[in-house]
Amino acid sequence: MFMILLGEVAFGGVGSGFYTMIGFVVLAVFIAGLMIGRTPEYLGKKIEVLEMRTAVITVLVPGVLVLLLSSIALILPNVAEVMKNPGPHGLSELIYAFASMANNNGSAFAGLDATSAFYTLTGALAMAIGRFVPAVAMLAMAGSLAQKKKFHPALELFPLLPLHFLSGQLW
Hints:
mainly alpha; two-stranded antiparallel sheet
């Protein structure tokens, strides 16, 4: 369940893992760049506001969606009564169901009857928002990064050094 809630950030897993991994990498590069006082860049491209917004959307939307839909399911009286396990295991069944719908294959534990109208509609909403919003955000990031020119940190940080020195040629 931990991996599903993280967004399936494992190679070969089912779900939205690769672009969620890229979102986490962009966030880490941005934070590391801020900590050392340099312009954040990844694969030769500067990480700016649009890339950060799309990375945050990619990483946060599925988790926030799971929290919102799980809390709505716990508040509504008719929905909470459908749960066969009202204790902590029932809560884990509910969180697993919405996390799986938003990030993975849409499975559920056996104790949760997900055939009611509420779970059908919120499951469809979780699948649509939890999968398409991060995918569109990552496509926007890819388009933004594709339009940018390659960033050469050595040329910008050390403009006084001769170009032949920076390229590795000594003569």
